[in-house]
Amino acid sequence: MVLKEENSKKSIELFLSIGLDERTANNTINNNKVTSNLTAVIHEADVTDGCDRTTGNLLYSVATKYPANALVHRPILLKYIVTSKIKTPAQLEAAISFFTNTGAEDFKLNEFEEACGVGIEVSPEDIEKAVKEIFEENKKTILEQRYRTNVGELFGHVRKSLPWADPKIVKKLIDEKMFELLGERTAADNEKPTKKKEKKEKPAKVEEKKAAVEATPEPSEEELNPYSIFPQPEQNFMVHTEVFFSDGSVLRCSNTKEVVDKHLKVTGGKVYTRFPPEPNGYLHIGHAKAMFVDFGLAKERGGCCYLRYDDTNPEAEKKEYINHIEEIVNWMGWEPFKITYTSDYFQELYDLAVELIRRGHAYVDHQTGEEIKEYREKKMNSPWRDRPIEESLKLFDEMKRGMIEEGKATLRMKQDMQSDNFNMYDLIAYRIKFTPHPHAGDKWCIYPSYDYAHCTVDSLENITHSLCTLEFETRRASYYWLLHSLDLYMPYVWEYSRLNVTNTVMSKRKLNYIVTNNYVDGWDDPRLLTLAGLRRRGVSATAINAFVRGIGITRSDGSMIHVSRLEHHIREELNKTAPRTMVVLNPLKVVITNLESDKVMELDAKRWPDAQNDDPSAFYKVPFSRVVYIEQSDFRMKDSKDYYGLAPGKSVLLRYAFPIKCTNVVLADDNETVREIHVEYDPEKKSKPKGVLHWVAESSTGKEPIKVEVRLFEKLFNSENPAELNDDWLADINPNSKVVVSGAYAVSTLKDAAVGDRFQFERLGYYAVDKDSEPGKLVFNRTVTLRDSYGKDNRCQNALCHMGI
């Protein structure tokens, strides 16, 4: 034991000698693999007597990132580092990539040096020249957009031409050039740009429509088990992220062995995840992916998933939304391990905020929202940033006791206002709101922010895997900075691409707008891709989960999934589960002149296309009488070779019944509108017409069939990506996205259908019974159309196949 402690002490001294901070050195010795690697690297580099911090940081990266298949070449790389031929993280990343591809094979030194920019000296003058050229090329755009110009793009252009340039010098010169060209910021420059409002629905390339049926390749391991990419809880001692500060220091965030051991003792080594929706609206299909990731990982590993309401904003949250979320999670097939609220931890969060102040990592600020914004843009510290700790503690207590007006003070985290990551700009931890809380009541008048509460509650609940979408990736630095500052357990964080689907909006702000302003009929309008809307439309949770699983848990951002892909999974499910029946949407009266007026036959119709004749449950009875109804679009006055409907003198087959031949047409007074048609039926079924029509008959003489209402839904937006339209997105709403057919006829067996029952209306599509149904008045929603049975060339052969009514 004494020898082990002595070795650990020597290792720490060795690691400190190359410029590592004390915490990183202590964390490193708790990881035997990294300790061994780093010790070997230091000896190979011959810097056991120490080196500067820049070189030490590069050596640490080699110890943690260098590929095992190329160890034979590591001494060469270390020589280049200690002689400052490789001196930047960008060069090192290029070198590691080079050796990853090379492996143990021989390589040409000149190719290695070229790949890593060895010997290339980029002077400030070179950078200044490149910046000047980029500004000349983009001058018109910069003058138009002024300080709304995407500086990141300008930075990228410079780095593309000078990949080995010092990024700090590049950034400094770009900022100077912007000021030189534009001068001081104006009030208009500080207005929030439209594109930022649309950031969550940024323009994206639309995934090409694929054929409905295509060859299925051999599934990959990740397709078979999409959760295989995630590490086990006991591996949670690795460096999670590196936070680069503006003073050149680097914070390497990881758990100590003691912290991991304590965590594993509490969790029993199980996976703990959380699904953390904010209860400020209804869940949409993007949340279905989040549930699949969070609940799915816990289920696959035999672990636990919390349903945690992120209820830090009392003004936006409603009991209605809380109830909906719990109900829809269960409907989706997921069972929470426990239901919690961020507000359950308000006292713990407050106590930790006090501790954060005591440690010098937070301060009470009196800047207004506009002042905070201005200071962040200028990377300036708040004038109250360095106030005494005791003063901030006193003021924070007064905030809690309601002694300070709303908007007059906030608690801010003391992070790094000069960082390249805007999510380190002293984020707000607490703000004053004299608003009762839906769950916590009126106990509190200060509420924690998402950035403060989210990571802290993750730690308090011993979450092993904190999983979220890619727009939160830049918040990772703040997430780990806070947990590090409070010496709290750190979960493993991983971001995946958000789910974007064509012809809709996914932003809760936009969804709330079109709901509250009656562009749609509530949060569960079947045209919306809210989960409640999809369910009301007739989509099953099974189909939604199959769709999400098919997309996978990827980090490839920027693509948009075509809605036809979702429809494919809906059809796949309904084809197996929805019984067949017959409904005529736009009835045309057909009189069978050679059938007695009082005769009614009971015929067998199939509920399932592959039904066996000896299975009575697979059939239902339909009446066949002198008067039947077909679709108006299934009759034409002029026949054609490629038309399979009914026409004068032509025969068709009534499905499950008999062939009929048109013998006469009765027109209305305008001498154009077809009022009814007369036909003769073939009781012997000797004729074999090609066309097959669905139909509904009178059950007795003069008694019309059951009348039902059918709602036909199309895409809510005409454009595949309404977000591209910025402020004009509302004008893109499809005025024909909902068509109500009030006089449809249905077979009598449908009279007992219940809300939520799903059917395939033959030749029309899949439909579900809507909640607006009443006794004697059934309402059906079209879930999805059928596939086109006539192929692309005859796409509109039968208008009903595509519901073009």
UniProtKB/TrEMBL annotation:
Residues 10-167, 170-247 form the Glutaminyl-tRNA synthetase class Ib non-specific RNA-binding domain. InterPro entries: aa-tRNA-synth_I_CS, Gln-tRNA-synth, Gln-tRNA-synth_Ib_RNA-bd_2, Gln-tRNA-synth_Ib_RNA-bd_N, Gln-tRNA-synth_Ib_RNA-bd_N_1, Gln-tRNA-synth_Ib_RNA-bd_N_2, Gln/Glu-tRNA_Ligase, Glu/Gln-tRNA-synth. Residues 200-212 have a biased composition (Basic and acidic residues). CDD domains: GlnRS_core. It catalyses: tRNA(Gln) + L-glutamine + ATP = L-glutaminyl-tRNA(Gln) + AMP + diphosphate. Keywords: Aminoacyl-tRNA synthetase, ATP-binding, Ligase, Nucleotide-binding, Protein biosynthesis. It is an enzyme of class 6 (ligase). Residues 185-224 are annotated as: Disordered. Its EC number is 6.1.1.18. One of its GO terms (molecular function) is ATP binding. Gene3D superfamilies: 1.10.10.2420, Glutaminyl-tRNA synthetase, non-specific RNA binding region part 1, domain 1, HUPs, Ribosomal Protein L25, Chain P. One of its GO terms (biological process) is post-embryonic development. Residues 692-770 form the tRNA synthetases class I (E and Q) anti-codon binding domain. It comes from the Eukaryota. Residues 270-575 form the Glutamyl/glutaminyl-tRNA synthetase class Ib catalytic domain. Residues 578-682 form the Glutamyl/glutaminyl-tRNA synthetase class Ib anti-codon binding domain. Belongs to the class-I aminoacyl-tRNA synthetase family. PANTHER family: GLUTAMINE--TRNA LIGASE, GLUTAMINE-TRNA LIGASE. This is glutamine--tRNA ligase. It comes from Cardamine amara subsp. amara. The lineage of its organism: Eukaryota, Viridiplantae, Streptophyta, Embryophyta, Tracheophyta.
